[in-house]
Amino acid sequence: GLTLNKIGRTESGAYLCIASNGVPPSVSKRIWVDVEFPPNVWVPAQIVGLPLGGSVTFDCFTEAQPKAITYWARTAGGPPESDLVLLPSRRILADSTSSGYRTHMNLTIQSFEAKDIGTYRCVAKNSFGEAEGSVQLMGSFDN
């Protein structure tokens, strides 16, 4: 038998058990292992400066099993539950792509305005917990 000790997310995947006694044919059985874990979040750039009228894209990477519910929120300055979940608009676009237990989220803000200054959070939640990362968007205004 095969024993996996201290199993982690990298051990997720398909395992093939092959039985052979030297007389063809061999017999095989495929077993799929899913390692479940709470979300992890990684944000490459946590502070971004942008001139008025410019465009910016924030990246956020998550890992979770089972797959997490992910979304972007804008900090409203109060407790986390008062944060505003960002909905797509003419200037604000959210997208995500997933591969296995990994998800790449991005948020694009076009035609940057002073009212866009603030903190943006990417949030990932599954049945084992939740995690978040944040990006602070600042204006880089010329004097």
From TrEMBL:
Xref: SMART domains: IG, IGc2
Domain of life according to the entry: Eukaryota
Gene Ontology CC annotations of this record: neuron projection
Record keyword RNA-binding present: no
Keyword Cell inner membrane recorded: no
Name by which UniProt lists this protein: Lachesin
Keywords: Disulfide bond, Immunoglobulin domain, Repeat, Signal
Domain Ig-like: 39-136
Organism annotation: Daphnia magna
